[in-house]
Amino acid sequence: MSSTKKVVSIRPFYRTTYAYQKLHICKRCGQYTCLWEDQCTSCGRSTLVTVEEKASSRVKRRMVRDAFFVLLIGAAATYFGETLDQSMIAATVTLLLFGGLIFLQQRSFQIEQRREMRQLLRLDEEIIRQGINRNWALVAEARKEDEALAYEMLREIGSLIYNDRIRLQQIALLQSFVLRSDMDLQLKPLLLQNFERLLAEYIGEIARLKPELIREDAIRYIATYEVHILQLHNGIQILTAVAAAAVRKSKYIELFPSLITRYARFMPKDRFMRLYHTIERYPTKARGGLAESVGRVYNEKYRDQYADVHG
Amino acid sequence: MVTYVCLAIVFLFVMIKVITFQVHRRKTVSREDTDRTLYNILNGGRDGA
User: For strand A32-33 and strand A24-26, is the pairing parallel, antiparallel, or unpaired?
Assistant: First the structure.
C-alpha cells in the first residue's frame, strides 16, 4: 500500500483571519473565485480583486457621486444668486456642507465598506455559488496532471464549503501522498460525520507525524468508531497512535480514560511514562480504572527497568 | 428663490446622509457577520455549493 504513495511537495496553506478574504471577484465579468489565479478563468483578464477591494471601490464611487451632487447643486445656488451677497452666502453654505459631508464620509468609510461587502455577497449569492462550483470543476482537471495541486485547490475550497464530499476528496488525495511532518497538514477541517477508513488511517498517520493536531474532536471520532477501526489491518496501530497522542494533555486523559486504558499497553515507552507521571501528578484525572490499569502495565513492563536505572 | 431652493436641497441631502450614517453606525456590520453571511450562502440549507 505504502509503495504506491507519491512523494509530493505541498505548499503551506495561506490562512486568512476571515473566510471572505479568500474570495476574489473579477472586476470585468463579476465571476467569483476562491483560488489563487492571476487571471479570471471566465474572461481571461487579470482583473481579480478581493471582495473587500470591490466593496471599497463601490463605496468610494458612491461617495464621490454624493460629493459631486452637493457641489453641483451648490454651484447652481451660487450662480442663481440674485445679489452678490446671496451668491456669497450660497457659496459659503455650500462649502460648509461640502466640508461636513467629506468629514462624514471619512468617518463612515469603514462602516459603509463592511455594509457594502455584505450587501454584495447577498446580491451575488448565486454567482458566488457558481464561481465556487467552477473552482471545484477545475479540481477534476488539475487532478489528472498534478494531484498535489488538486489537493491544494480542494483545501482552499474546503475552507469555505463544509461538505463531506470535499473532505473525502482531500483525504483520498492525502492518503495517496507520502506524508511528512514538515508538511502543512490539517485535521480538524477534514473530520467527517460517519466512519471512513481513509480518514481513520489519516488520523493514525497524523498521530505519528504531528501529534499536536490530535485534539478532542479527532480523539472522539476515533473513540466513536473504535470497533470499525479494530477491523482494519492496522487498526491497533491507529488506536495506539491516537491514544499516545492523547496523553500529551491531562485534559484528554480525563476525557478519554477508557480509550487510553485499552491502548496504554501498546504505547511507546516515552508516551507511556508520560501518562504514568501525569497520573502520578494528577491522580484525580485518572477515571474509570485508568490508574490501576496503568499501574499494572508499569509493574509488568517498566518497573524493573526503572528500578535498574534508579537503583 | 432658486438659490434658496438649491441650498435647501443640499442641506436636506447632507442631513439625510448624516441620519443614514448614524443609523448605520448603530447597526454596524462586523467582519464576523460578513463571514457568517458567506458561510450561509455557501453552506446554508444545501449540501455544499
Answer: antiparallel
